[in-house]
């Protein structure tokens, strides 16, 4: 193997490991969000019952419970937004992995000498190139979606 091929293979492994670690971190966070959703739901149910059942409670107490309930709703909305962002990140990771695989396949066809390429090789090379363009376009759409979402939040 020439040095450049070893370097390419090493960089591909490194980027794959980074994607894997990032995917694991996203998965852990999604699980944490799910647990927090359940906890917030339970707290919300308790507060709703208190508000419905305790009509004789002082107004200050009911106001406090209402404020707590609104806080829980706001927290849940924030978690839903974060979950949505993480799901977009998961899609982006999948597309990134797909792009790397297609890059590798395309590189193997392009490294073949033109004289040795069959018509099937040339067709496969064109197909891979089309797939690669589609993946890049999908990643671009995700990035635009994230940017629009960020701007709308501002």
UniProtKB/TrEMBL annotation:
Principal location class: membrane
Protein's UniProt keywords contain Secreted: no
Subcellular location as annotated: Membrane
UniProtKB keywords: Coiled coil, Membrane, Monooxygenase, Oxidoreductase
Domain of life of the organism encoding this protein: Eukaryota
SMART domains documented for this protein: DUF3585
InterPro entries according to UniProt: bMERB_dom (IPR022735), F-actin_Monoox_Mical (IPR050540)
Domain BMERB, first and last residues per copy: 13-154
Signal sequence, start to end: none
One example GO MF annotation: monooxygenase activity
Pfam families cross-referenced by the UniProt entry: bMERB_dom
Tagged with keyword Secreted: no
Coiled-coil ranges (or none): 23-50
PANTHER family, alphabetized: [F-ACTIN]-MONOOXYGENASE MICAL1, CALPONIN HOMOLOGY DOMAIN-CONTAINING PROTEIN DDB_G0272472-RELATED
Protein name per its UniProtKB record: MICA1 monooxygenase
Source species: Certhia familiaris (Eurasian treecreeper)
